[in-house]
Amino acid sequence: MHLGVSESMRECEYSQISTRSSTPMETPYKKRTSRKRKWESFPGRSKFYCDGRIMMARQTGVFCLTLVLILVTSGLFFTFDCPFLALQLTTAIPVIGGVLFLFVLGTLLRTSFSDPGVLPRATPDEAADLERQIDVANGSTGYRPPPRTKEVVINGQTVKLKYCFTCKIFRPPRASHCSLCDNCVERFDHHCPWVGNCVGRRNYRFFYMFILSLSFLTIFIFAFVITHIILRSHRNGFLNALKDSPASVLEVVVCFFSVWSIVGLSGFHTYLISSNQTTNEDIKGSWSSKRGKDNYNPYSHGNIFTNCCSALCGPLPPSLIDRRGFIQSDTLQLAPPTNGITMYGATQSQQSHMVSETGSESVTKTSAFRAPNSFCRLPPPLSSSSRPVNQSF
Amino acid sequence: MQGFVPTATDGNMATEFHNLQELRHSASLANKIFIQRDYSEGTTCKFQTKFPSELESRIEWTLFEDTVKTLNNYYAEAEKIGGQSYLEGCLACATAYLIFLCMETRYEKVLKKIAKYIQEQNEKIYAPRGLLITDPIERGMRVIEICIYEDRGSSGSSSGSSSVSGSTAR
Question: Which intervals hold domain Golgin subfamily A member 7/ERF4 (chain B) (predicted)?
C-alpha cells in the first residue's frame, strides 16, 4: 500500500511501516524470495490465467465448444447471409446482428472469466475456534462427529447452515460447495460446463444476460437465414438457393437445435430471478410449498420487479479471494505511540526467531495458508496484501 | 518508553525501524476471537453484536457494540439496493462494464471507508487496550478477528490497558 506523503503523520508512520516491512532492505531477517501471487497457491481446483486475472473451472473443453459454435455460426451468418440481406432488405440487419453478437461474446467471457463469489477457506485459527465451539456444543472430542449444522432464523423461516469440511466454515445461507471446483461459492446457482465456471453471486447477472442475448441472437440468425433462403428460392428455386448458400443450412441446423434449450433455459432463469431462487434451491425444492404449508422463500422481496432488479442491478460485491495479491510473510506490527500514553511493541523477537528457525519457506507463507495453528504466533498481517480496489472482475 | 520512538517527520524510516527493533518490548499474541456473521436478516453482511466473554476484562461492551454496529451500518450501505445502485447497475450494463475501469463501484468505496474506520478504531480504542481488529475483508467477510495481546513481561497474566500491543498498520 502506498499512501501519499501528504497524509497525517500518524497514518504515514503506519503505512510506511507496513510498506517497509514488505521490502527486503530494511531488515536483516527477511530473505529475498520471489514474490508469488495468491492465485498460485489457491487451494481449490480452479484454474487461473493471465497472472490471476482470469479464473475458470478445471475442465474448459465444453466452454471452447460453446465459443466455437457461437463464433462459427455468427461468422457464417455475417459472411454469407448478411451481404444478401443487407442489399435486399436493410443494412440494419447486420448492424443489429453485430451488436447482439458482441453483447453475447462479452457476457459469455465475463461469466466465464470472473470469480463467481468463491469464499476463501478459513484460516487455521478460525477453523480451530469453530472446532472448539462445536466440541463444546457436542460434548464430544476425538472421532468425527455427524454433519455439523447450525440453525438460523431468516425472516421467520428456519434455515440450516451446513459446515463445510473442506473449507472449514459454516456456509452462509445460499452458499454451496462446488465439488468440481472444490470451492464454496456464495449464492451458488449451478456449475455450468458450457461457460466453464460456476455461476454464483458475482456472475449470475452476466450469465443471465448471456443466455438471454444468446436466445435473441439464435432466433435472430435463425429467422434471417430462413428469410434469406426463402428470398433466394423465389428467384432461383429452393434447391438452387441451398446450393448457392450452403452455409445457411449449417446455420439453420445449429440454431434449430440450440434455440429450444437456450430459450428454455432463459425462461427458467427468468422464473428463478423473479422468485429470487437459485437453481440449487429450485432443484432441491427448498422453498416449495410441498415441503410444508409454512414453507416460503425468505429471500424474496415480495414482488417480481424488486426481485429482478436486485438480481440484475444490485451492487456487485468485490472478489473475496484477492487472487492477484502477493503472498506476504507476516508483517511486523509496529507503531509509534498514539498520544504518548501507551507504548506499542511488537513481536520482533518472535519474528526473527521464527524466520531463522524455519527458513525462507515460512517467511513467504501467508496466515491463510499456514501450517497447523498455534496461538504463540505472530500477529496477522493486517496490511498484508495491497488489495487492488478496482478488482471488480 | 516514548523516547525510543522518534517521530517520522523526516522520514528516515530505516532508523526508526531499527530503533523499534531494538526495543525488545514485546507483546505476545495471547488469543484470537472471532465475531461471526449474523444471518438473521438474510445474506446481507452483518456481524453479531453479542459481547464475547474474553473481552469482558479488556473493553467496555458499549465501545465494542458501537464498533460492530457501525461496521454493520457500513456494510448495509454498501449492499443497499435502491435508486443509486440501480443507476450504477444500468449504467454499467450499458457501457458493457467498461466503466469500472475508471470508476470504483459503490461497494469498493464503502470498503475503503470501512478500512479507514477500522484503522481509526484500532488506534484510538483497541490498541490502547491490547486488542487489534482485523478488517473482515481480509478474512473473506466471514468473521471479525480480534487479536488479544498480552504483555510478555508480566509473567503470563493478562495485563490491563497499559499493556503493549501490536497495532494496525496500513
Answer: 33-145
